[in-house]
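Model: You mentioned two targets. I'll fold them one after the other.
Researcher: Yes, keep them separate.
Model: Target one:
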Amino acid sequence: MTAAQSTKLTLLCLIVVTEMTLSYNNTRQTWSFILPDRESDLGSKCAVFSNYYCFSTYWTNYKHTERRETAYDITVFKQLIFPIYASINWFSFEAIAENRDVCCDHQAIVYGSRALPFGISPVEFLHIVTDYSVVQKSLYHVKARYDPFFCLNVIMGITYGYGAPQYKVQGGQVTANFMLPPTGVPPYRIKIFNRRRLDVELSFGWFKRNVICSDQPWICTV
């Protein structure tokens, strides 16, 4: 092998290793929540069920296992999620208008489209949607609207996840700080989040302790 061929082989190896690393580093998992902002469509629907938050959806972009789908997966997941859906604030908003049960068609659609194709079994997905561990979960996406009365961006939806290089903000004013919509029961307390430190001040640990566990205290005891 000539020196030129050796150099070329080394470069090819480096490219393969780099691609493998990028593929691994680009794996994503996210958990999304809707806040009871009564001035927004989804927020007002969430407020029907909770004064604090509603779990919305899960998303991933990589194959977790090589498991194959079975004809019973959706049915099994419905049976698993039904006893606990209210305990994790996971409701079907469409069911309100259609006068249907708030579980478990919507939850099954999320499983069938966001988890099942990625090799995730019904039992594994149950563990995923009840995963409240704070390690490595970071702010991934914020959906907000600007409120001229408060002069703040009101957060309507928030997403946390693994593998997020940098969080993104959708909506609101670039120069305004952030607030959660009034949660809980009166008198309401409003906490302001610095727009330059949003990912630090609104960490998943803070959100879990102050929002999730305010409505579902059991989550902070397990």
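Model: Target two:
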Amino acid sequence: MGWQQAPIDALVHDGVSDDGSLVYHRAQILAVLDDPSLGPRVGLYRHAGFFRSHEARVRIAQLWEQAAAKIRLPKVKPEAPEHRQRTVDRLTGVLDTGLLSAELTRLALHYRAKAYKDLDQGAAARAGMQQVAESGGRLAPKARRGLANLSRLAGDFPTALAAVPTLGWTGRHHRVLGDIHWSHANTDQAVTAFEAGRTEAEEHGAAGERAMIQVRLALALSFADPDRAGAELSLAYQLLESLDQRSNALLAQVVALIKDAGTDGIIDRARSLNTDITGAGLPFLHRFVELAVAFHHAVRAEDQELTAAISRLRGLTATGDFSYFTDIAHFMGGLPLPGPTTTQWIDSPDAVRARWQHLVQTRRTRTCR
């Protein structure tokens, strides 16, 4: 049985090249072949589906972890922080000429709105998405998805949830639904939505969407099931390898922090990741890092450090977007909210609080804290 026959899901990372791509060494592939649970199935057509099973992914993740001393996370080539602002400026200049066709105008408005979102300019992003959605055309479903996501970012979960049935595949309905559920610590519902979205992306041959939703599947699992999260994250790295998705590559590294929360070294890793995020010009991701740090401190019952993380989160969410992350951090630590919140959950705040506290307690038990 030749080693080339090993399914891509069974390959084990053995380092990262200077350009940031993952490297697979024959020795690590042979480790999969030699494994008593994986080896007999490699290269046999009838076992192809096995390598996507929970059992296989957990075992592959274990092999991946055994090589951890030699593995670095995928690098992200830094760009100037003002990159998204340059995008806004260029698109604004083109739009102001008034020379674009209706379809190209919608395209420019759509991408400018996405850039505004990454720059934390929610009002401008909403205005642009609303224009595209109301004007019709092929980008209208994506604009409706953008509006649903902007509602979620603002903490208006009922509005986001109500939009899901109108989105369909083009509006990435499963991804929107999964993002709503993981924010409520509804892990099972989030996983179901993301798995359905991954299947749909595979059916449509949408490699970028498949990678994006794979990262989110790992994110949903990272709080509740670190073992499976590691397996899903391993696949996410493989899918991202051939794509230019800087924000998802960085989000995958946040997922790795959450998966390992409660263990030593998290704060240094978070600090390094924040530097990479700043270099990539994607400030919205700082909030995910701080949420991961808050989870870590809650697990370790480090009350003073958790309070500091919440304070940083409050500063990062002062515009209103992602302010529900601050609520979640309070829930994680069993802390009362300091005052009225703008977040509108899809069920009671007490139920959301209880689920997040359960995740913290489960991880605390796992790490013997």
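Researcher: Noted. Anything on target two?
Model: Confidence is low (pLDDT under 50) at residues 1-30, 67-82.
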